[in-house]
Amino acid sequence: MQMGVEMEKTQKSGYLLREDENIGSVKIADDVVAMIASLAATEVDGVSAMFGNITNELMSKVGMKKLTKGVKVDVINSVVTVDLSITLEYGYNIPTTSKVVQEKVKIAIENMTGLEVADVNIRIANVNMSANK
């Protein structure tokens, strides 16, 4: 029998998930949820990068703070709202690409954290005009 997930805000910008007090606790930092959102978004074809961030090819060479640039995460009562500012590649359909990003981010956060994602808000902040095609 699986118990529901309880969540409370911790003092160090993170969230404490409790499934069973007899086993222990799991804490998730805000930056971890933001990084999951960022990585999921940049895996979508047509997304060049998070706005003000780097591309997927360079992600392995930098720290977590760079990965979460362009992502804002709010968690209230185990419900997540994500705001993403992304750079799209020129030539991709904005509504279609945005919908794929929303779905991918929602699934990634829910599967990895157990939190419920209510909203994934996208702001197209830039279009990459380089001729990569």
Please sum up the structure shown:
With 133 residues, this protein is α+β, with helices and mostly antiparallel strands. It is 28% helix and 38% strand.
The total strand number stands at: 7
Order of helices and strands: EEEHEHEEHE
State the CATH superfamily name: Cation efflux protein, cytoplasmic domain
Helix content: 25-40%
- Count of the separate structural domains: 1
Largest sheet: 4 strands, mixed
Uncertain regions: pLDDT < 50 for 5+ in a row? 1-7, 53-65
Number of helices: 3
Spatial separation of the terminal alpha carbons: 51 Å
Mean pLDDT over the residues: 79
Morphology: elongated
What is the level 1 CATH name? Alpha Beta
Query: What is the name of the CATH topology?
Result: Alpha-Beta Plaits
Helices and strands: which structural class?
Answer: alpha+beta
Compute the CA-based radius of gyration: 16 Å
Level-2 CATH architecture = 2-Layer Sandwich
**What is the strand content?**
35-45%
